[in-house]
Amino acid sequence: MASRSHLIDWPDTAKPSFASWALGFLLILVAAPLFGETLLVVWPSVFRENGLIETPQMALLGLSAILFAHALVRSSGARAVFSAVLILACLLALQREIPACESAFYEGGICATRPAKAVFAVGAGTICALVLLLKHAPWRRVVDLGNILWVWPVALAAVLLGLAELAEHRILVEIEETLELGAYLYLALFATGMAFRSPDVAIRDVRSVRRVAAAPRSRDANKPGTLPETTG
Length: 232
Known about the structure:
Blueprint: H1 18-42, H2 54-73, H3 77-97, H4 114-135, H5 139-142, H6 148-169, H7 173-196, H8 201-214, H9 219-222
Transmembrane segments: 21-43, 55-73, 80-98, 118-134, 146-164, 184-203
Keywords: Membrane, Transmembrane, Transmembrane helix
């Protein structure tokens, strides 16, 4: 595990580019339904219940969980808490995508029993909670609304999932599944950035200077004509 001095929090990194992430969101929003309609024509079986389309969805969720775990190891404070929460969210979504062996729609392949899925969900939540306790995150900084400036792209992934849910209610399975796939891809890209982004040296230097400037000086140092103490 990284030493505490090398752990990074949100203020140590640059904020996500609005133009890049907004453009990515719009591309997925437009491309996913078109991709779904095309697949429905050329390969309709991919959209059947527990169909092949769910395999890349599960792969992206598993990859995202691993990437957020890597980010967690490198993070402290609010960034660490956010990483743990996203790990849990990815794992819960993953177990939701895995078909239940008892399902009437299950036709073979990967599956998990409903009790196993429940145990998995409880275990994932417990482990993430323990990790958060070990991180000793300062909760005042964790709940700071300013953190939104670093995590807002995740809200766009949630919007895509919300639209997928709406498509499901309209029985537009091809749009539902491809929007979900796009949302998980978007999340995986964000997780990749979190996992491998290095701290911005310029930002850290500014923060260090501010800490030094804000540090209280000794009384002797404030007296006129007083020289700093020397050793020897």
